[in-house]
UniProtKB/TrEMBL annotation:
<keyword id="KW-0812">Transmembrane</keyword>
<feature type="transmembrane region" description="Helical">
    <location>
        <begin position="113"/>
        <end position="134"/>
    </location>
</feature>
<keyword id="KW-0472">Membrane</keyword>
<feature type="transmembrane region" description="Helical">
    <location>
        <begin position="78"/>
        <end position="101"/>
    </location>
</feature>
<protein>
    <submittedName>
        <fullName>Uncharacterized protein</fullName>
    </submittedName>
</protein>
<keyword id="KW-1133">Transmembrane helix</keyword>
<feature type="transmembrane region" description="Helical">
    <location>
        <begin position="39"/>
        <end position="57"/>
    </location>
</feature>
Length: 148
């Protein structure tokens, strides 16, 4: 049996995770607003944008050596990036929704925008936690193997 590389595992997890999130979101929004092709377009774009934004984020983590930082140095960077990514996602999808799901316009208020940012922030913080924990477990495993 062929063993998957870490890179292959990463891409499978990216695609599976974002697809699962979008399918769940599609079901919820279809129940609330009724199914439309616009919702399906949003789901497909969310998969692509979610993978793209988090992949760029992963690149930043690796490029600037964030995995080598202490938790007190790492946490503010993670929180800042998660907030920035959440705002980017919300801005993009509010604009997209005006074209793909016109009925949603009446639900866009300042308080809903804050709610959307918090929800995207939770999702992106979860992504960060999973990614960072995986990286730390990998490093621990490598360190333990090198000890023997």
């Amino acid at each position: 049996m062929m063993q998957m590389t870490k890179n292959t595992t990463y891409w499978i997890c990216q695609f599976a995770g974002w697809t699962a999130y979008c399918l769940n979101d599609l079901v919820i929004h279809s129940g609330r607003f009724g199914y439309s092709n616009g919702l399906l377009i949003n789901a497909a774009i969310t998969i692509v944008l979610g993978i793209s934004v988090t992949h760029i984020y992963r690149h930043i983590i690796k490029k600037y050596g964030w995995l080598d930082l202490s938790w007190s140095q790492l946490v503010p960077k993670i929180v800042s990036c998660v907030l920035l990514m959440a705002i980017i996602m919300v801005k993009f999808f509010i604009l997209l929704d005006f074209y793909t799901v016109p009925d949603i316009q009446q639900h866009i208020t300042p308080s809903s925008i804050i709610f959307f940012i918090i929800n995207w922030g939770k999702l992106l913080l979860l992504w960060s936690g999973i990614y960072l924990l995986f990286q730390y477990f990998e490093r621990s495993r490598k360190f333990a193997n090198n000890q023997f």
